[in-house]
Amino acid sequence: MTVTTVSFLPRFNRALIPLLSGLVLLTGCETPLDFGGDVTPLGTLSQEQLGNEVTVEGVVGDRAPLLDGGAYLLQDESGEIWVISEEEVPEAGQSLRVQGTLEQREIVINQQDYGELYLQEQQRTPQ
Fold first, then answer.
1. Those residues with Cβ within 8 angstroms of residue 82's Cβ, 6 or more apart along the chain or in another chain
2. Is pTM beyond 0.85 here?
């Protein structure tokens, strides 16, 4: 008895099947975004870091929709910071890793600055 195999793929394409299978497996894996760099505790953010890119983690508290995106309060055990985003505001209680630029908004009342630090979001991922 003779067994004959029939292939609908030319020989050069059959050699690519293991390679393509490996690529499909690699691209199908979901991994959290790694922004690189260390995570900074919210309570340690300071004016010395203004204009710098930082990565923080925390849980979403209060939320405020804005015309273009929104703002949300990110909290960890060491402190909290408002995050301004051009994207849709995440749900309250969601754990996030956020990368952004540390900024400060001046709010002067009777010659007293009541401004506060905030984070201009560049990217975020659920944790």
1. 71, 72, 73, 74, 116, 118, 119
2. no
User: Residue 22 and residue 81: Cα distance in Å, rounded?
Assistant: 42
Q: Please state, in angstroms and rounded to a whole number, the distance separating the CA atoms of residues 105 and 69.
A: 18
Looking at residue 103, its amino acid is E
Closest CA to 78 of 116, 42, 39: 42
Q: Which whole-number Å values give the CA distances from 112 to 17, 107, 108, in the listed order?
A: 69, 8, 5
pLDDT digits (tens, 9 = 90+) for 91-104: 999 999 999 999 99
Q: SS3 of 101, please?
A: strand
- Amino acid at position 29, single letter: C
